[in-house]
Amino acid sequence: MWRIGNPWLWPLGILVQIASTFTIVFAVLDFGWGHSGWFNFSPSEVTISGGPWLLGIGRQSWALFIANVLVTGIAYSSLSGFFTVGEEFCWRGFLQNQLIKRFGTSKGVTASACFGLHGIYQLY
C-alpha cells in the first residue's frame, strides 16, 4: 500500500517546482528561444503585466517579486495539491496495486504508465 512520505519535505517540493519553472523561463529568455509576455526583467526591478499574482502586478523590486513568486507559488501549489492528493491516494493506494496483483509487476506498472499518460494533453 502506498503511504505518504515525510510531510516536512512537502515545502521543499513546492520550492523545487517554483525554482524549476523560473529556471526554464530564464533559460528560454537567455537563449532567445522565446519572449515573456508577462515579465520584463531589469537589473533593478521586474514588471509584471498579467497573471494571477497574489501580491499584485506592475513594477516591483526584486525582493517584492521574489516574495510574490513564493506566496503565489505556495498558495497555488497547496490548492492544486489538495486535489492531486486524492488522485494519488486512489491511484497508487488502490488501483495500481490491483493492476500489479492481476497482471504482475511489469505489466501492471506498464498499464499504470499508460493510464498516467491521460494527462499528456495538458501540455498543449
Strand and helix layout:
Blueprint: H1 10-31, E1 39-41, E2 45-48, E3 58-61, H2 62-103, H3 105-116
Antiparallel strand pairs: 1-2, 2-3
Helix pairs in contact: 1-2, 2-3
Question: How would you describe what is shown here?
Answer:
- The chain is mostly helical and 124 residues long.
- It has one domain (9-123).
- The chain has 3 helices and 3 strands; from the N terminus they run H-E-E-E-H-H.
- The chain has helices spanning 10-31, 62-103, 105-116; strands at 39-41, 45-48, 58-61.
- It has a 3-stranded antiparallel beta sheet.
- A hairpin with a 3-residue loop joins strand 1 and strand 2.
- The two termini are 33 Å apart.
In short:
The chain has 124 residues and is mainly alpha-helical. The protein contains three helices and three strands, in the order αβββαα.
